[in-house]
User: What shape does this take?
Amino acid sequence: MSVLNRIKMTAKRVGSALTNSSNVSLSEINELFFNAWNSTGGPDISEITYFTCLKTLSEAIGKMPIYLMDADKNRISDHDTAFFLQNRPNPYMTPIQLFTYMEYCRNHYGNGYAYINRLPNGKIEGMYPLDPQQVQIYINNTEQFTDRKYMYFYSDSRSGKSYWIDPADIIHAKSWVCDRTLLAGKSVREILATSMAGQKASTQFLNDLYQHGLTANVVVKYMGDLSDEAQKKLLSKIEAQARDSSRRMISLPVGTDVVPLDLKLTDSQFYELKKYGALAIAAAFGVKPDHLNDYSKSSYANSSMQSLSFYINTLLYNVSLYEQELNYKLLSRSELAAGMGYKFNVSMILRGDPEQQADVLQKLVQSGIYSPNDALSLLDRPPCENGDVHMVNGAYVKLQDIGAAYASKHLVNNPAEGGDNDETK
Assistant: This one.
């Protein structure tokens, strides 16, 4: 069915609803305008591989806490912006919800926005996420390309009001693939529209197969010649009996036979093609097969290496994107020059299993890099008394002092070689 016919049929249903009732649901109106977009197997987010990739990336960013640090890597908690990113960005959301939603929008729509609401004195009141579908970017093309100013235009669908937003008052996280202006990102589903349609079609095929009881198509053979109307009547009776789950047998008219068509998904390599399509979509997001429960080439034994690979090859870019955007929009140039900056705590996803974690902490404490209390804090344990002391092996010496102990021992065994000292005595 063409897109135009779908819109016409939906318009008739909505028109009938207007005639029979004074209330029309929002879903019916949305169906009128957006049903054509969802005509190929439903919305993109209904595809399980696509949804899993969105979930993995969004939750990975959301579950990492972010801290404001100085040049010496000390956490700063008394800054004006630290409270909003570490405790409550706005009265309705927690930091994990804000960053999870922004990362979801960045991957699903290509852009994630958060409005920085500033008070008249310049202090921040809160940060509020915006619907990317309601945000537009306007740029002045008449100026020189090195000095082209741009503004964000946001339309609030609930109140009907529109707002012009200065770029300094909006956190904009965009995809690495941008449009021609380099100001707005493009989503993966826009780029891989053909692959997404194929994956949704395969899912729809399986759903239809399950709804028909995993039965193949059949050929009905009959004697003589039947009109089109008689054929439809015969087939409808046979199909009604076949769909009746309460009966195990069906009755056929005399001279009629039913021959099933052989259906083998293995012959068409359906599983292999569907798996390849799923891995291709996951690769476009940078999501590893183990996040899709595909452990054919991995296992739980190397889970720590998989987490490290996922961070380096996928999350490192995303984390750096948010850190650089937050530093530029929330900190002054003097604060940046002093070495201040926001950092995500990536150790939340790199902890590994308890045995590996204990081995790493032991080595860090014994080498003097961590104090015992530093290790306890990573294990969410209270500090111990006198635990802020850094300890190293007493046999360690400075590089410039290597061999000094042997020289002293040599002078003790050969006092005559210290002639100057003897003459002084």
